[in-house]
Amino acid sequence: MRILITGASGQLGTELSNVLKGDVIKVYNTKEVQGGHKLDLTDYSAVEDFIIKKRPDVIINTASLTDVDKCEVERGLAFKVNAEAVKHIVRASRVVEAYLIHISTDYVFDGEKGLYKEEDLPNPINYYGLTKLLGETYALSYDDSLVIRTSGVFRHKGFPVYAYRTLKEGGEVHAFKGYYSPISAKKLAEAISELINHRKTGVLNVAGERVSRVDLATKIKEKFNLPGGVKEVDYVKGWIARRPFDSSLDITKAKKMLSVDFYSLDENLRYMVV
């Protein structure tokens, strides 16, 4: 099976490259990947040409502009990467009849209720969430596609890694007052690897257990016996975009479908790269 990964230099792309078997085609843009192919996803004709020439059986689109505040400021770039590029990946997928897995986010929701199900109505409150929702729409216009909504992916960066490093140095973690469903890139990659064989289409939530950032930071402090402190805050200094208060995802469907434990907090925390 020939599998093409976009965003191969990112956290999820890195883990997918390690987990997936077969002929894996790795595509990157900024950070070079050994054995990979450099490709700017905003060069749409080049994207379509590359996919059609490589003729993958499966495409996993992990590429995304995930900096929420950068998306708020550089809206043109956010739209090109998170939405428009997906349209062209879909166009090429149709030609080669590839199965497309597109990675999306809990930030398509407003965070008013939490534990969102796949069929709940999205209502993004920042531009990042809006562009990701548009990307979902393009992906779902293709019958042989699966949109995976996930939350707070971490490996060598992300809130759990920030908390660990800050606490280890004896500093104070400023934890946003709110909830989400963080998952390690390693466990998400394992779940995706299993999902390829299911060939499911539509939308599926694959994320960790619902937890507040305060409780998560406190757990990390206790689990690793770290000296620093934790402070709950309503707002993190420097933020530009609004954040949903509770963007946690209901993962009932994925838990029934998959054999891998992708969700338990302790299991996910094993795979922080600190």
Major beta-sheet overview: 7 strands, parallel
Q: DSSP strand (E) fraction?
A: 15-25%
Helix-strand category: alpha/beta
| The CATH homologous superfamily | NAD(P)-binding Rossmann-like Domain
Give the integer mean of the pLDDT values. Answer: 96
Backbone shape: globular
The tally of strands reads 13
The CA-CA distance between the termini, in Å, is 33 Å
Strand order of the largest sheet: 3-2-1-4-5-6-11
- Secondary-structure element order, as H and E? EHEEHEHHEHEEHEEEHEEHEHH
Number of separate structural domains: 1
CATH class: Alpha Beta
**Proportion in helices:** 25-40%
What does this structure look like?
The chain is of the alpha/beta class. It has a single domain, classed as NAD(P)-binding Rossmann-like Domain (Rossmann fold), CATH 3.40.50. Helix content is 39%, strand content 19%. It has ten helices and 13 strands. It has helices at residues 11-19, 44-54, 68-73, 75-96, 127-140, 159-168, 185-198, 213-223, 252-257, 265-269, and strands at 2-6, 23-28, 37-38, 58-61, 99-105, 145-150, 153-154, 172-176, 179-180, 183-184, 202-205, 211-212, 229-233. The strands form four sheets. A seven-stranded parallel beta sheet has the order 3-2-1-4-5-6-11, sandwiched between helices. A two-stranded parallel ribbon has the order 7-10. It has a two-stranded parallel ribbon with strand order 8-13.
